[in-house]
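ok so for the tutorial part 2 we go from a plain amino acid sequence to predicted structure tokens. step 1 is just haveing the sequence, like this:
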Amino acid sequence: MTTPADTHEERLSGSVERVTFHSEESGFTVLRLRVAGQREPVAVVGLAASPAVGEFMECVGTWQNDRTHGLQFKATKITPVQPTTLEGKERYLASGQVKGLGNYYAKKLIEQFGDAVFDVIENEPERLLEVPGIGRKRLDMVIESWTEQRAIRDIMLFLQEHGVGAARAWKIYRRYREGAIATITENPYRLSLDIEGIGFQTADTIAASLGVERNSLMRAEAGITHVLGQMSSDGHCAVPEETLIGEASRLLEIDRPLVAEAVTNEKLTRRIVGETIDEVPCIFLESLHRAETGVASALHRLKRGPLPWEPLDPHDVLPWIEEQTGLELSPSQRSAVTLVLASKVSIITGGPGVGKTTILKAILSVLQREKVSVALCAPTGRAAKRLTESTGIEAKTIHRLLEFDPQIFDFKRGRGNPLDVSFVVVDETSMVDVVLMQKLVAAIPDRAAVVFVGDVDQLPSVGPGAVLADLIASEVIPTVCLTEIFRQAAESMIVVNAHRINQGEMPLTDEGEELSDFYIVPASSPEAIHDKVMQLVTERIPKRFDLDPVRDVQVLTPMNKGGIGVQALNAELQARLNPTAEPKVTRFGSTFAPGDKVIQTVNNYDKEVFNGDIGLIEQIDTDAETLTALFDHHHVEYDFSDLDELSLAYAISIHKSQGSEYPAVVIPLSMQHYPLLERNLAYTAVTRGRKLVVIVAEPKALDRAIRNCKSKRRLTGLVQRLKESGKQSWQNL
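step 2 — the prediction. this is what the tokens look like for a chain of 733 residues:
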């Protein structure tokens, strides 16, 4: 408990002797400050951005007596400033804040330039070459670091003045560089669009402190963009106009007419697009409208024209396939092969064990015989790897296939530079959102054919749209829907139960003594589920099935929050499975250590690691402030300031698991998850397990998940566009 010692606000200045505690997430800091006139370092408590030993700070606040820690200076403001004494300047230069120096060169600079050392670095940096040992390379490091520190210091002062903590300063600086303050001042709402971790509410707070009126059109327009962005995060490409106006009015606490005026303005500037879907006026973000129209036009472009191979007679092709490959095709598989080989654009959909891979191998064997160039792709690295293993032909992620270029932040392949192939296979199509699909189909040349393969009954893509479902629903693309489970697959209870769940039936369990690949563990409460999940992952599954609890066992849960959500389960599993690993680093509310399983949470094209990729931390370098993780034989290095891109992955959301398979999955289901308990969620989770699936559930929750097939339809215009384009194409023939 703290009691007031002196309510008079004071200023303290001094160099940081020790950083006792600092939270990157909140900015909360406890440090020891060496202050002139004080015999002992002063304990300072407040908010600061990445304080470092040797850095000079100015603190504004009051003295308080803490019953546990004694006399402290409780700072309302902690600002990095340049020290004024020679000793302070030397300590600052030696602190590591200015890269390229250190103790030795800090001392040499003070000896050479004395009190003027900061002025020299600021205004005449070339004079540093006068110091023996400092060459051009070291000078460039000093100049770059000095400039960055000055810019960050200015940004921090600016943000603190407007009520924002320090944790995001580095990201803001890296995004806007020296133009940060000007950019934020001009339109503070850009922060919520451009900076990961800064939401609309934070940007709105900054805007208010900068004097933006509550009833300003800028604020109303930003609110509209925010609501549309939130709806797209839920998978929608469009929002009914009345819903949009109502939601924005409620969020901003302003009148509907002002929001309606802002909607009109945004339409005029083409930042949003109005269009009628099923006789309801709707609003699209311009980027999503462009993506939908691009998908529809590209698919109809591809449907026109001849096949890129000579017509093939099924009576010749099908026996040849069986003879050459040793495959025995069922009637449904024969129909599927025939359809795909006769179509410029086609779809193969079906659940596990229905022969999608067999059909693909058969088709590819024929096209290789015909010397047709092919390209295989999938949305994730893991899905591409599985496709490679199952077909024997290299498959790439869509991003690699389209040759993403971080310099231009776009793909090299597109309409003007199409892929040089004649047949494209897109696997796990249900995972592909409308924006990525538009980029992909635009890059497929007119002459080529394409087949989309996927399971339409799985959860739709994390990003906006329901592309595979819309393609099938449009009825303008030839589609094969496979339902027959083949004998070998039928021996797997995972496959059998996946299909039962998809049909709304309760899964079966094998009560025999032999090991099964599917179990249901009943539990009476969320607490009981938690305890059983811990026991299963850390003890029972590794012991009984000889599986590694970190590498082989994946917990898949419906929600992020709650006692059996992603965050809580990760903290507990980390404590049990990787308790002693060192060194540890804590950033943005998460603690990481070597050996931890992690998941990438955003696409990072520079590092070639994408949302949903799972890896293992191999090394943490606290001196260089870097973390290295291994993702599918690909090492990725992160600066500590980028660690908000990573989360622990002992447990992940079911949505994040799409396109991946794991040796064993453990699925907790509770009535806590009630809003998300839907059939396609349970079905997707079960189909992620390759060798073992264990559902730990309250019986009511499992029953709810299987019987509830009323998942909310995503609002898109793609079905309508495909049908309209189809009519136009037919009329033009």
